[in-house]
Amino acid sequence: MNQASAGHLLRLIRSGQATTRGELQRVTGLSRSTVGHRLDQLFRAGWLRETAGDPVDAPTGGRPSLRLEFDASHAVVLCADLETRHARVAVLDLGGTTLAEHSGALLINQGPDEVLDRLAQWFALLLEKTGLGTDAVCGIGLSVPGPVDRASGRVLQPPLMPGWDRYPVPERMRQAFAAHVSESGADRMPVLVENDANLMAYAEQRRGFPDCAAFLLIKVSTGIGAGVVVDGEMYRGIDGAAGDIGHIRLSDHPYALCRCGSYGCLAAVASGRALAEQLTAAGVPTASGSGVRDQLAIGQPDAVRLAREAGRLVGGVLATVVTLLNPGVLMIAGDLTGPPFLTGVRELLYQRAMPRTTAYLQVVTSRLGDRAGLAGAAAMVVESLYAPEHADRRLADTAAS
Ligand SMILES: [Zn+2]
């Protein structure tokens, strides 16, 4: 009965399946007046605009039909990308364009209270900078370096986030945000939390490889994680643990202690943190994954050698992952991204996986770089809030208030 609600029409318009009133009638089978009525709901909310269509649309010289489009400027999203030692926050419009951005040192191991309060403070400052009020914000998206339970937004047993296990992140984020902005309504702000590799994969697939039906991204920074996008949707597994390949245990490194408490994990020998330790032991003091990145940038020979070896270890694990998923694209992202690591990955991947599995596989590096997490977080919030059912609920709430 609700087959073609206003929310459904919005989806048809946003996806480009139907962008004029006539096309909407044809696709949905609704009458002209019903389409008009539903579109009025969307116009009243400020979600749509109507523009003169391309003259090519009217080859016979008739009046060009008016084109409907989603108004990506009618609201903004606040996003934060949390790494272990620093964070990046931004105000983005609904099309993913950054309006203001800030990044700074922020230690995730200070715990959720302090970290979320600092993010809220940064959000408030950024909003002030853009001249926008809280009422312009439709939601908050957080990218975190740990497994996330989608339903509750809680982080589950995250090795890189001590003190965050099962902490009510969305509730606390809302509260902190409300405390830093004066307007009412902030305490009802939707807050969505997702794993960083998942969000990076989501953003990179949408932006650079929209036709790729099976997309795999590996993030190697402090830890190692994978994000999988299948048919345009993030693949999370049953409780958000999918892709946590950093804790697959290698048989030949029994003494390497991992942050998760086990020995021999891939992350204990091939992550940015592990390489920082190995470099330091080799006489090149390096504090973190980003320190390794700096050494690689200047071609430091030990860093280059270790990155290539790390690439081989990751490539060995990826042979299994790629065989299972048969992706069209394998994207390498994070601090170690670069020729030595990539060479190592390719060596083992092509040696261990069947040629049939890798015949059409493109191995590429990140396109969005440090912005992938924020772009993914913004896209997640927009896709959630403007999905048909959610959009209809929000329209009903607006009409009632
Ligand atoms: Zn581990």
Automatic annotation (TrEMBL):
Give a yes or no for keyword Kinase in this entry: yes
Give the record's keywords alphabetically: Kinase, Transferase
Gene Ontology molecular-function annotations: kinase activity
In which family does this protein belong, per the annotation? Belongs to the ROK (NagC/XylR) family.
What is this protein called in UniProt?
Answer: Sugar kinase
Please give the organism.
Streptomyces marincola
Record lineage: Bacteria, Bacillati, Actinomycetota, Actinomycetes, Kitasatosporales
